[in-house]
Amino acid sequence: MSDLVLTVDEAAARLRVSRWTLYNLIRSGRLRTVKIGRRRLVPVNALAECIDALGEVA
C-alpha cells in the first residue's frame, strides 16, 4: 500500500523545500493538511493540488 499521508518532514523533502517554507504554505491555506491527534499530516494528493495551484499563479 502506498503512503496516503506524509509527515511535515517527508512532505518538505518531496517538495524539496524547508520545513519553514512548508509551514508557510500550510498557514497560507495553499497546502491542505489533516490533524490526527497532535500530529499534522499532509495527504499525498494535497501536494499535487498545491503544485498545480502554485503553477497557475506563476
From TrEMBL:
Pfam families tied to this protein: HTH_17
All residue ranges annotated as the Helix-turn-helix domain in the record: 5-50
UniProt xrefs under InterPro entries: DNA-bd_dom_put_sf (IPR009061), HTH_17 (IPR041657), SinI_DNA-bd (IPR010093)
Signal peptide residues on this chain, from the entry's feature table: none
Superkingdom of origin organism: Bacteria
Protein name: Helix-turn-helix domain-containing protein
Organism: Streptomonospora halophila
